[in-house]
């Protein structure tokens, strides 16, 4: 009979795997040092601490912190499934639900087990205002990271698809304010890069296609 403490340490080791699961979206785009899933959830948890009552009235930010830290937990078992993987939402949900049950079986305290599983279900089903804000943070954290990779790896405009796939999907005006600032910062960076290096690929933001001056001339 495996002791409860033994099972808890097994749970801790399984979720510890999130420190090594690289985010698929970046791996597919050959980012040099792609972040892990836990990196992504950590910053979302800190972003949740920035949700002031003035801008986010009636939002329980402590619950947002918990939702941020749990929302991708299943990926320690099923991996980080990206849209490019072509796995249906139903299949992804089933795999992640089985993973969350496997993790829950390692937590003897029923209240704790129910809390963690409940948080994951709440995010999956977007069944609270807090879950909807955290979904916004999920998208915002990703595009902020995309911009940072474009700067750090000198790949201006190359991660445009992350911006295209999230454009217009932010629900909360407070997060949209952050998105607007990020777009402004990115535009300034793209202009700086294109003015310093006219031969650099010019991003046609309207059609989101990239053309080099030599090709278009
Ligand atoms: N290339 C793209 N990858 C994307 C896009 N949207 C999400 N993703 C990646 C990012 C993660 O690796 C994974 C899922 O992220 P979750 O936080 O939802 O688990 O999919 C995109 O537009 N392009
Ligand atoms: Mn996520």
From TrEMBL:
Keywords: Hydrolase, Magnesium, Metal-binding. It is an enzyme of class 3 (hydrolase). Its EC number is 3.1.3.89. One of its GO terms (biological process) is deoxyribonucleoside monophosphate catabolic process. Its cofactor is Co(2+); Mg(2+); Mn(2+). SUPFAM superfamilies: HD-domain/PDEase-like (SSF109604). Transmembrane segments: none annotated. Residues 206-217 have a biased composition (Polar residues). GO terms for cellular component: cytoplasm. Gene3D superfamilies: Hypothetical protein af1432. It comes from the Eukaryota. GO terms for molecular function: 5'-deoxynucleotidase activity; metal ion binding. PROSITE patterns: HD. Residues 188-217 are annotated as: Disordered. It catalyses: a 2'-deoxyribonucleoside 5'-phosphate + H2O = a 2'-deoxyribonucleoside + phosphate. Homodimer. Belongs to the HDDC2 family. Catalyzes the dephosphorylation of the nucleoside 5'-monophosphates deoxyadenosine monophosphate (dAMP), deoxycytidine monophosphate (dCMP), deoxyguanosine monophosphate (dGMP) and deoxythymidine monophosphate (dTMP). This is 5'-deoxynucleotidase HDDC2. The lineage of its organism: Eukaryota, Metazoa, Spiralia, Lophotrochozoa, Annelida.
């Amino acid at each position: 009979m495996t002791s409860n403490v033994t099972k808890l340490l097994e749970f801790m080791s399984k979720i510890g795997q999130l420190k090594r699961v690289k985010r698929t979206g970046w791996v597919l785009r050959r980012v040099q040092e792609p972040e892990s899933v836990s990196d992504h959830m950590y910053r979302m948890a800190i972003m949740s601490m920035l949700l002031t009552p003035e801008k986010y009235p009636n939002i329980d930010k402590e619950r947002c912190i918990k939702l941020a830290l749990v929302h991708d937990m299943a990926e320690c078992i099923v991996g980080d499934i990206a849209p490019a993987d072509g796995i249906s939402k139903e299949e992804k949900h089933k795999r992640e639900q089985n993973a969350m049950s496997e993790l829950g079986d390692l937590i003897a305290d029923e209240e704790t087990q129910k809390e963690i599983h409940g948080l994951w279900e709440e995010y999956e089903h977007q069944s609270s205002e807090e879950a909807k804000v955290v979904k916004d943070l999920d998208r915002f954290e990703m595009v902020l990271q995309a911009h940072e990779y474009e700067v750090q790896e000198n790949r201006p405009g190359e991660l445009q698809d992350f911006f295209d796939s999230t454009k217009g999907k932010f629900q909360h005006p407070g997060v949209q304010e952050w998105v607007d600032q990020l777009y402004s910062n990115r535009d300034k960076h793209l202009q700086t890069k294109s003015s310093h290096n006219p031969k650099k690929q010019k991003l046609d933001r309207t059609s989101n296609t990239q053309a080099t001056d030599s090709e278009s001339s």
